[in-house]
Amino acid sequence: MKEQLEVLTKEKFPENDFFNHLERGMDFYWEQNYERALEEWIAASRKHYDEPVPLKNSKTIFFGSKIDILPVVYFFYTISSNLLTGMAVIKDKEHSCRLFFKKGYVVFANSSKTESRLGNFLLKQKDISLQQLENIVLKAKEENKRLGTFLVEKRIISRETLKDILSLQVQEIVSEVLNWQKGSYFFTDWEIGKSEIRHDPLDLLVLAARRKLTFSKFKELIPDNKVIFKFSPYIEEERLNILGKLNANERFIFSLIDGKRNIEQIINFSGGDETSVINILYYFLEQGWIRRTKEVVEYQDEEFAGLSKSLESLIFIFDIIYQGLFKQVGTKITDLLENSLKKMPVEYQKIIQASLVKDKIELPRFLKSFIQYFPDEEDRYVFVDIFQEVYLYFLEEGERFLGNWLVKGIVEDIAKTKTDIEKFYLQTETKEKLLRVLDVIVKRFC
Fold it and tell me: What is the DSSP track for 391-429?
């Protein structure tokens, strides 16, 4: 007697955040909004939910449903959570595919679509002609061997290459199946032999969305640098873990994302080039950490405006010291500056050295170098300390070489700048930091 199909319905699945993420991701995928599908499925994976879906107790496992009644993501979860071994068949009007599972993992896949067959992937991956492939397929059939096994035995490809191709085949087929909004599916027992690969079905959802969200697709989403990004609401508890995975540039860009700054403002603030910043944003989007906002308003970046103004003032004061000493010592100025930098912490030295072009500190170069050593938000204003040390040691070197009375004249010019800052700068925390630095310098040398 033929086993009756156990029909999967949504009632079998609890109402919780995990399944909400799973279904929203499916909806976004169908809408071709792959960035949001990716975000939802990554959020689902962070839940680490793995409660088995209850199935009927019977000798033979045989269950399924229709895609428009229950999306295939629920089907995949049922197989995975019950650690089932067998075959899943998914069909729409034109095509069908089979996914083979072993203890809940996808270990192999095939499809009725020609482009999803192993041979086609071999043509893409390997320097082999269609005629050669047809001969290989014929010989494999003559020896009654699976194509993959035959290819490895005849050393046409390595076992590792076969694994890569089989893995790619699974990803491609799952990515295609997820597009289907009509059709049916069922799962049944099936004996599965030794497997070369294995994929967690939930990981395959994430990989499918990433395959769709290519870099060229991402570039289409940002027609200009006025696009604004904000954090996904699902990563709040993950922030510290995320920061631990990032390099200095990535951490600094991460700290600049606030739902108000656009790409252009992030580029300006970071001192980086457009390509590297956009690549970092693409990486963040791939990880499901950020999303685009719908706003096209350009907000005033008050923090960057204040920081830039402060840096311009600090660079101007450095220039006063440099030019004042240069008038007195000429080319000896190089030695004075070098001796000054040696007294500073190594990070400070490297930042200043990377920022200097001839006798000038360039603001973009300073920012770019600064974030290599101080990428975190809490260190954003360490630059004030760097300049304080440069001023102090540079003037001390000048004093040692020239005597106090000549250096005092330079510091009197600095005092005039200090007065201008007191009068004309808005009252901010940065202004107070600047004035404290200048107070130290003026009191030390006047």
Answer: HHHHHHHHHHHH-HHHHHHHHHHHHHHHHHHHHHS---H
